[in-house]
């Protein structure tokens, strides 16, 4: 089973406006609501690709009910830890450009935090655990450390889409894969990355610090996969970009699902690239057919 942990789920409120003027009344054409949060998106995509998954994390209030309800309706297994406070609402404004306003997230009590740690009790080395996204500010740094340690104790394969201190801690537990985008990679090492060679060198440091694979996503330029056996570039097909929200999550789902199925890193990379781009070309997360079609338009090349 592939479990995802979303500490900070959200309702993604997607608003399309023909144009956006700050300080003025703007009228929307369409508004859509989705159950969001990085780990939840990963679970949604795993489910779309027919991989067994259960979404874990904190949900509460009317917003939490919406998130759980949407996922249940889609047939997705969830085992969320209930909290008193309301899960957040993140605003995604789609106009000539995309603007996001992400809320900080709910207050989580010490008992609620403890309850989530206990939900990992049944997880074993046959499973995969994915921790994705931000941490609500009410949770301490030491809770995050505890959570990552607890994840490692289960013996499961570990996957992280986290940044900063959480990524630093995660690396020491030899995760199967970490997935920063190029900006997060630059920020993590406090450097400026000018070209693919810089990104590759910097990505290599993630392996030196413990990651078994590092997937550095490059938006419309595809992604780099760093492994002990070489560095690979995967292309991104061209298409009409509708929504870049969730591309990175789709990528993690594609990689982790295929790797758990076959153990083949190249196949996993290919599915991750197709899922990421297909989501960029969809209003919501991509559908399986679109992902399968895109696999034919992607090339993977060893560059080092
Ligand atoms: N404009 C695009 N055209 C084609 N493919 C894209 C585009 N944007 C993203 N992708 C695909 O999706 C992958 C992930 O995108 P990106 O690098 O934006 O991740 P991210 O920053 O983690 O995204 P997010 O946080 O919005 O989910 C890319 O590596 C690429 O394969
Ligand atoms: O605040 P975080 O956890 O970093 O990001 C949350 C978020 O922007 O990420 C997802 C897309 O990747 C969205 O569904 C969600 O709104």
UniProtKB/TrEMBL annotation:
Domain of life: Bacteria
InterPro entries on file: 1-PFruKinase, Carboh/pur_kinase_PfkB_CS, PfkB_dom, Ribokinase-like, Tagatose/fructose_Pkinase
Catalytic activity: D-tagatofuranose 6-phosphate + ATP = D-tagatofuranose 1,6-bisphosphate + ADP + H(+); beta-D-fructose 1-phosphate + ATP = beta-D-fructose 1,6-bisphosphate + ADP + H(+)
Enzyme Commission no: 2.7.1.144
Segments forming domain Carbohydrate kinase PfkB: 12-280
Molecular-function GO term, any one: 1-phosphofructokinase activity
UniProt record similarity statement: Belongs to the carbohydrate kinase pfkB family.
Protein name: Tagatose-6-phosphate kinase
Species, as recorded: Lentibacillus kimchii
